[in-house]
Amino acid sequence: MSASTxxxxxxxxxxxxxxxxxxxxxxVFVTYDDNSNAKLQNNETKPxxxxxxxxxxxxxxxxxxxxxxxxxxxxxxxxxxxSGMVFNFLTATFAIQWAILIQGFFQFYHDGKIHLGVINxxxxxxxxxxxxxxxxxVLGKTGPVQLLVMALLEIPLFAVTEWAVLKYIRINDAGGSxxxxxxxxxxxxxxxxxxxxxxxxxxxxxxxxxxxxDILSVMGTLFLWVFWPSFNSALTFxxxxxxxxxxxxxxxxxxxxxxxxxxSAMFNKRxxxxxADIQNVTLAGGVTVGASVDMMISPVAxxxxxxxGCTACFFGYKFLTPFLAQRLRIQDQCGIHNLHGLTGLxxxxxxxxxxxxxxxxxxxxxxxxxxxxxxxxxxxxxxLELQQLIPGLKPGLGRTAQEQALxxxxxxxxxIAAAAVGGVLTxxxxxxxxxxxxxxxxxxxxxLFFDVPSDFDIQLDPLHLNSVYNAN
Length: 472
Description:
Layout: H1 10-29, E1 30-32, H2 52-73, H3 81-107, E2 109-110, E3 113-116, H4 118-137, H5 144-169, H6 177-194, H7 211-233, H8 240-267, H9 275-280, H10 284-288, H11 299-327, H12 336-357, H13 360-363, H14 367-370, H15 381-389, H16 401-430, H17 462-471
Parallel strand pairs: 1-3
Antiparallel strand pairs: 2-3
């Protein structure tokens, strides 16, 4: 291993400094929330009413997506399986720890303390998902120190953007199409633009897959597919909103999956299926229903959105990804612009249409709960009438459907701009010479950062298989 990429000093020093800072911040600012504080719980408390039993199933499902789904999905390169899974493990673990603190300051800061509960962990996982999506753009071309630095910088930048959009622009985005998928996509593209490697535009000898690596990657796809309804519905209102979110996500994923199989066979020169399409394009429907996932869009609309997202994602991989690399210096390694960017834009547009079409005739009084910013403001007589029908309904801003739609558009542009600028700035930091960045020749190779087993580079070609057969 070249001394310039040795982790012997860099990684331990960086990690130990982060841990010291983390311990200090947790000691000063983090305490238990009401549902995990023993002082507020006793034998007379009804334990099953604790928020743990409401939030933990969603936390567990998203955990599976973060560590198994993303981890396996990113292990599709033949000689980069260790790095894809393990760097995902490392980055995700740190990102969640860091997001608890950073998001806590913006969302859960009370009385000088961050009150920690399972809901905080769930929110931190969503911030972690942003980092892991961005990671996909630079997969194979970065080392663990660079990825930790990316998480260190992206989490605060994301938290500021999220806070500003939700507090000042105020949007509906239940499935995170704007604040998770679009932000993560354009942040990753900004970073990979700075980290551009012209020598890799024509490919790399080890930028290949294998039978085993493709199977492992499809397992990641299946984990993400199965648990995506939890991802989209976790932060929606409990009850009918959450119920619709699960239904819409499943329908969107189902239609995108069968469409992906059809397109893969149709556009393959030999009429066969391509594993890359199965690994990525099948998931597009989970994103395209995100912005309107809790709305009364109708089941057929969710189904159609899945088809639209899948189609855009498929042709994005086929035509747009090579164009971005050749003409715009954006080497999007995992095609995050297709699976999260294009589909995020479709989803956001669908959400705007759903907002414009929302009426009391369709939603009833609950329209002002789902579209909370359209609720009458404080002092409006209509608010008192609605609060009799929906106890606890909070005052809104009195926006019309058209006004809310314009704010949604503003949020899209603001989020993309903030993400792209943040990604570019983070890319410059990741490019600093002491970050242990791999050379062009050593990209997509586990041997650079891992002790690999003796059979690591065995080529499973017919000659090798024959020699194994004859030896036995």
